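worker-3 :: picked Flavin-nucleotide-binding protein
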Amino acid sequence: MGRHELEYPKDATNTVKRHDERASYALRTIHELINGSPILHISFNIEGSPFPTTLPMLGQMGSFARPSSSTGDSLDLYVHGYVSSRIMNMGRKHTSEDGQKTETGLPVCVAASHVDGLVLALSSFSHSYNYRSAVLFGYATLVTDVEEKNYALEQITNGIVPDRWRHTRLPLTNAELQSTSVLRIRITSGSAKIRTGNAGDERDDMQNDELRDGNWTGVLPVYSSIGTPVGSDYNKVEVPAHVSEFIEDFNRESREYCVEAIKKK
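worker-3 :: tokens ->
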């Protein structure tokens, strides 16, 4: 019997209401969308300001207590930034003196999105995107344990290029560790929303031969690709296997997904 797929419980915060058939609450689906996004947008409220703040940040899902956990398990989200940045200072205020998680922490919302195709229909109203999006809700506190901080930075580094951490100068210096802070976001809920398939139009438009004869419909696949590496001015080595293999896998998987997504209903 296969392993049960864990899901975030639906509540008033994370429930997808429009096109709920596109929703997913599976931890694996959501966590992989978060980990696969080069930029995460973290939103939080600032006391005394009428506007929420949204920051682009790097982050990865993980569990310091259970480092062998998969993306289908309950995980925290780690993000890093400059030690005196506003979000780090606010996270610090929500962290107990011994560095443990507080009951609440700084409330944050995390968003990630991927565009996989431009859907062109007969009607402008029926135009759309093929996309994958995910949101997480949780509470952020500052990571003060040095081992957990290094664990988080390793996850984030390997989230850029797999296995990159051990191909860098280690350990990090005290100055590097002191100038960088890490937030651990304890996730309380999340959801994903995914659109696949080809174009679709209203019945009246589909039955209008003149309209169909004069307008192209379909999907323009959109996928990311990594170009040829360009070495630094001081580089002395050939492109290593962990980089070249990552480029090959990334480009193939990115293209294959968006093409296959068009075929799905």
